[in-house]
Write a structure and sequence with these properties.
This protein is an all-alpha fold. It has helices spanning 4-16, 32-60, 67-83, 87-95, 100-109, 113-127, 131-139, 142-151, 157-171, 175-183, 186-194, 199-215, 217-224, 227-238, 243-259, 269-277.
């Protein structure tokens, strides 16, 4: 990392450890001048990180009238994605830099799929296993915003796969978001993605559907309302030469078989699911 502050800190730290004494040291025993230097450097590092995040969010809000401006916005979003992988930084993006909710809006509102995909990635990373940001997104109608973007036929299919990833991150382990997703026709929306010509979109939709059907009785009931069509589409996935597609499709069918055994007794579908999963009794 080409950062003078980090380099100075590393050089100072190495100078304190020559291999003959333990690396750990009681701060009270540290030379006051060296202690002050360390505290100052750490403070500057925090301030520098904060300033960088604010600058990236400012660039995220920038115009998109030229290719250079679009590229700058994409790079800012990519940089933010790298930084918010730590949950504290994700919260800071929302609470300090005010960049999380605008990223969700950008998924719907930008005119460029490259920006849209990166904004969806940023939203997904922030919300994954983060109940606080899931709640913030719900309170700001973030699910509706993402669902609108997902339903827009003018957006690229691979870009829509990123949007499914963001929706999945918002809904998983969040009962309120799950209820809203199902009420909005989420299962049918995923079914339509499953028959997409885009492998990325198909896999994302299948992955979300398999955990949704596995974990949610309400989702299984919603799926069984038109179980025959969904089963047909999933059965077609079993025949594809793609390990991810067949694995997630079989997992979806396993959940449906358990929900409504009688509906899947005929046509060899039950046997096919059992064979793919290598289990003795899918419906037991």
């Amino acid at each position: 990392m080409n950062n003078p502050m980090y380099n100075a800190l590393l050089k100072w730290s190495l100078a304190q450890t020559d291999g003959t004494t333990p690396a750990a040291m009681d701060p009270a025993q540290l030379d006051p001048e060296k202690k002050a230097f360390l505290e100052r450097v750490m403070s500057e590092m925090v301030e520098d990180e904060s300033a960088t995040m604010l600058d990236l969010v400012k660039r995220m809000h920038g115009p998109e009238t030229t290719d250079e401006e679009v590229e700058a916005k994409e790079m800012a979003l990519e940089d933010l994605c790298d930084r918010v992988d730590k949950i504290d930084f994700a919260i800071a993006l929302h609470a300090y830099a005010k960049g999380f909710l605008p990223a969700i809006a950008l998924v719907r509102d930008t005119a460029h799929d490259g920006v849209r995909a990166r904004a969806a990635d940023l939203a997904s990373i922030c919300m994954r296993n983060n109940a606080d940001l899931q709640r913030a997104a719900l309170e700001d109608a973030g699910l509706a915003t993402l669902f609108q973007a997902h339903q827009n036929p003018s957006f690229g299919l691979d870009c829509r796969a990123k949007i499914v990833g963001a929706i999945s991150a918002l809904v998983q382990n969040n009962s309120m978001a799950e209820e809203a997703f199902l009420a909005s026709g989420g299962v049918e929306a995923l079914r339509l993605d499953i028959v997409s010509i885009s492998r990325k979109l198909k896999v994302k939709a299948l992955f979300m559907m398999q955990w949704l059907l596995r974990d949610s009785p309400a989702a299984r009931r919603a799926a069984m309302e038109d179980g025959a069509q969904l089963a047909k589409d999933l059965e077609a996935c079993l025949a594809e030469d793609d390990d991810d597609v067949t694995e997630w499709a079989a997992a979806c069918l396993q959940s449906l078989v358990r929900e409504g055994k009688a509906a899947f007794e005929g046509g060899g579908l039950r046997a096919g699911v059992e064979q793919r999963l290598n289990v003795g009794a899918v419906g037991s």
